[in-house]
Write a structure and sequence with these properties.
2 domains; alpha+beta; three-stranded antiparallel beta sheet; about 220 residues; about 35% helix; globular; four-stranded mixed beta sheet
Length: about 220
């Protein structure tokens, strides 16, 4: 069994894509195939797989249990920080309980998909790095939603983050004040605590031990 088929057996990512009309439409012109079947072994028993340039619209990502998927022709100058970012996602999947406790200390609470109103859920982009736990609520109340800008012509690269307030039912573009106090007014990839942590940690990453040091911060 090839690496991507093994990954699909674990996370059912593309099965879920096919069962979601908007996400299926966003993928219909993309080619999710490796450039070859060779994988490069990397630190922490990860494997790097070079993908077709249009795979996930050229966005680097991970698949279980240990695959880091990088699009062909990815800019060399961006590769070190990107690989660190994706390595962190692999670790988040492997040590899910430890990371979830970290996120809960930060102020996050996991939220079942069934609690997200359907009219917004069906517009949310699926992300292979967070597919197993798509939604979290900040302070138990504010849920970031990665919404396609256009439902009729969805593009994986054209996504906006809106915040759904579970108490009032209101959805708005501005993040809550308490979130901004912790992460800043315009943090990169605010749609999920895994992404926020990967962005924050990858900027200072030097060795794998930095991951454990980071997990002790909150």
């Amino acid at each position: 069994m090839d690496k991507l088929a093994q990954a699909e057996q674990i996370d059912s990512y593309f099965s879920r894509i096919q069962n979601d009309p908007v996400n299926r439409r966003a993928h219909q012109t993309l080619s999710y195939t490796p450039m070859n079947n060779e994988v490069k072994r990397w630190i922490l028993d990860t494997e790097i797989l070079t993908m077709h340039p249009t795979a996930e619209a050229g966005l680097p990502h991970t698949r279980p249990p240990n695959l880091i998927c990088i699009p062909a022709y990815y800019p060399e100058q961006r590769l070190p920080e990107t690989l660190a970012h994706e390595l962190i996602h692999v670790d988040q999947r492997r040590r899910r309980i430890k990371w979830n406790r970290f996120f809960e200390r930060q102020g996050w609470t996991p939220l079942p998909e069934s609690e997200v109103p359907l009219r917004w859920l069906q517009r949310c982009r699926m992300n292979p790095d967070t597919i197993d736990e798509r939604f979290w609520a900040w302070k138990g109340r504010h849920v970031p939603l990665p919404l396609f800008e256009r439902e009729d012509n969805p593009d994986l690269r054209q996504v906006v983050i809106h915040w759904w307030d579970r108490e009032t039912g209101i959805k708005q573009a501005q993040a809550p004040r308490s979130f901004q106090e912790r992460f800043g007014s315009f943090p990169s990839q605010p749609e999920h605590p895994r992404e926020l942590a990967a962005v924050e940690l990858s900027k200072i990453f030097q060795t794998p031990s930095d991951i454990d040091s980071y997990l002790q911060l909150e």
